[in-house]
Amino acid sequence: MLQFYGIMILITLVVSIVADGMTALMAVICYLVGCAFSILFMHESKKERRLYSSLFQIVFFSGLLYASCSYLYMEFKGYSYLLAADVDYYFMPKTISFLDLDDFGLAMTENWKSYNLFSGSHEGYFAYIIPFAYLCDYLGADLYFSMQLSTLLVFGLSSIVIFRLFLLNEFTHQKAFKNTLLICLFSILFFYSSVMLRDIHIMFTYLLAIYFTFRKDFSFVQLLKLLGVVLVSCTLRIETGLFLFIMIPVYLLYSLQVSRNKVASILFSFTLSLIGIVALFLYSNRISSVFMRNSDIYLDSDKGSGVVGALQTIPVAGKLLSIIYNAVQPLPLWSKLSPGVSNYRPEAYNLMTFPMSFASLFNWVVICVIFIAIVNGKIRKKLAVEINKPLFYNLLIGFVFLYIQASVISQRRLMAFYVVYYILFFLILRVISQRDRVTVMFLSVISYFLIQLLALVYII
Length: 460
What we know:
Elements: H1 2-18, H2 21-40, H3 46-77, H4 85-99, H5 104-112, H6 123-139, H7 143-168, H8 173-186, H9 188-191, H10 199-212, H11 220-236, H12 238-244, H13 247-258, H14 262-282, H15 284-298, H16 307-311, H17 317-327, H18 354-375, H19 377-386, H20 389-404, H21 415-431, H22 434-459
Helix pairs in contact: 1-2, 1-3, 2-3, 2-7, 3-7, 3-8, 4-6, 5-6, 6-7, 7-8, 7-10, 10-11, 10-21, 11-12, 13-14, 18-19, 18-21, 18-22, 20-21
């Protein structure tokens, strides 16, 4: 309880200084809502509920400090946004347009009135944002900071799902807690933790869907939850939501293998297969249009004369190298800390991108450790015992997800499956000796800084 009240007081002080008292109240409300969700919606032991709450509190407050620093920097520089241009030209103006209706019910009706699953709109995101916007308006809080808080709340809840995934992979509570904090504070997730974009929300739905695939016994309720998460994801971004449908056959496949209720599992698998085939036949044109509309964004966006463009000319290996190249961005690690001599988009390229540099190192270490495990027979044998079937299936799906977007230099759409590979990374560290662990980590860090030198030479 001391941590709970201590962090609440710190939140009040920090946000009151950075913004104002009403915005601080908004921050406290988000904090209390997150703490309530972390306790009420996880039906495990009292010890685990305490860990959920503690994890949320630490992650939320850490993200709040970063959001506060970003807000201060934005105000000091006189910018209208920071880090992502989409906020300024789309998400914030549309949120303000809903506020201008001056009626919460009318705003929600307006948001959903022309909804079409395949339209590619973002009704689900704005359905989440509108209540925050109207509460902010009622309190007289700062709108931009409040929108940061709306993302931060989902980020904090995502940490609990990551923690649960570690437990399902037989990590101790202490290790799961520590590993989750490392991921949330030092990976690319932290950079997007408070940016007014859909990516953290989509990552949350993906993590929930991945979590459901680990459930052993078949349950119709569990299947409905999974389907609900998939449909919610479709309202956030249709193309990534459609991909998430693959989690339903993964869940059914695992249920068929291990569930005690195999008859029900087989029956529902057969039924859903028929429904899926009929739906695919009926909506094939619309699904095809979604694919064509987004192919330039997800499949071919960065095929140019640069590094990625050159790699795409190499069959298979080029795609694999592109995945690695994307994961270790920015190269060199300081390249996004300044807009450069051209002063190009200083709102997006500035000191507040520093979490991306930490994430670059984190990802490189993960890649090195996974590579060593692949080429080392002894480690591979030990690891094979540790990887359960749901994790194996999700690693395969994650690889496909990363592979088809190998030419896209953006990590924000890949975060959920990065988490799956982070779990693999920590599993590898668990099966190797302390001495080997230190050696591998040391060599990974040294090689990372050698890459920075090579990147610097390439720029010069």
